[in-house]
Amino acid sequence: MYSPPFTPSPPLRPVRVLANVALGALAFDCLTGLAVAVIDLREVSIINRLISDPDSVSDAEIDSSDTIYAASGYVETAVFLLAGIAFLMWMFRVRANADLLAPGEQRHRKLWVIFGWIAPILALWFPKQIIDDIWDASRRIDQPSRSGLIIAWWTAWLLSSWVSQVVGRLLVKADDLEGMAAAAKFDVVSLAMWVVAAALAAAVILRITNAQETRRLAPSVQPA
After folding, report:
1. Nearest 5°: CA angle at 69, between 68 and 70?
2. How far apart are CA 131 and CA 117, in angstroms?
3. For residues 12 and 212, is the Cβ–Cβ distance under 8 A?
4. pLDDT for res 45
5. What gap in Å lies between CA 83 and CA 60, rounded to an integer?
6. DSSP of the chain, one letter per residue?
7. Fewer CB within 10 Å, N or C, the chain?
8. How far apart are CA 224 and CA 197, in angstroms?
9. What integer pLDDT is reported at residue 7 of this predicted model?
10. Maximum distance among all alpha carbons in the chain?
C-alpha cells in the first residue's frame, strides 16, 4: 500500500527577542508611570497649599508645576503607546505559532489581535480569549487548560482602564482647585493599578514565551 511521504509541520518562529522587547517596554512604561505619580503628588501638594494659603505659592512655581504636569501626560501617553505596540508585536508572533501548534483551534482571526482591543464592547473579552487560545495551544498536556494568571492579568487591565477613564472625565470637568486635586489623586491610583496589570502582563508573556520556545527547540519525532 502506498504511504505518502512524511511532511513535517512548519517550524515555529522564535519568540524570545520580541518577548524581551515587550518586557523592556513594559518595564520602561512602569518607571514612567512611577515618575508621573510623583509629579501628580507634587501637583496635589501645590494645589493644597493654594487652597490653604494662596500667598505661599509663587506664580513661577505654579507655572513650572503646570508645565511639568502637562508634559508628563504627553510623555506617559507616548510611552504607553510604544509599550502597546511592543506587546502587539509579541502577540502576533505567538498567535502565528499557535496556528501551527493547534491548527483550527483559534476562535478569532489574526486581525482581532489589533481590532479586539479597540472594538466597542468586544474589547471587554476578545483580547483575553485570544490569549487564552494561545495559552491552550502552547501549554503542555499536563498543564491546566485555563490559567489563573491570565484571569488576574485581564481583571487588573480592565480595572486600570476603568480608573483611567474616570481620571479623564475628572480632568475634563475640573474647573476648580478641588477638582484638579481629585483628578491628580485618581491618576496616582490609576498608575498604581496599571503597574500591577503590567507586572501580570509580563508574567503572561514569560509563561507563553517559555512554553513556545520549549516546543520550538524540542527535537521533532518523525513517524517510522
Report:
1. 95
2. 12
3. yes
4. 87
5. 34
6. ---PPP-PPPPPPP-HHHHHHHHHHHHHHHHHHHHHHHHHHHHHHHHHHHHH-GGGS-HHHHHHHHHHHHHHHHHHHHHHHHHHHHHHHHHHHHHHHHHHHSTT--SS-TTHHHHHHHSTTGGGTHHHHHHHHHHHHHS-TTS-SS-HHHHHHHHHHHHHHHHHHHHHHHHHH--SHHHHHHHHHHHHHHHHHHHHHHHHHHHHHHHHHHHHHHHHHSPP----
7. N
8. 48
9. 38
10. 97
The tens place of each residue's pLDDT in the chain, 224 residues long, gives 444 443 345 688 899 999 999 999 999 999 999 999 999 898 888 888 888 888 787 888 888 888 898 898 899 999 999 999 999 999 999 999 999 888 888 888 888 999 999 988 998 999 999 999 999 888 765 455 567 899 999 999 999 888 888 777 766 666 677 777 887 888 888 899 999 999 999 999 999 999 999 888 876 544 44
Task: Identify the residue whose cell numbers are 512604561.
Answer: 29
Structural contact between residues 220 and 8, judged by C-beta atoms closer than 8 angstroms: yes
Are 98 and 133 within 8 A, CB to CB? yes
181 Cα distance to chain centroid = 27
State if pTM tops 0.70.
yes
Residue count (the chain) = 224
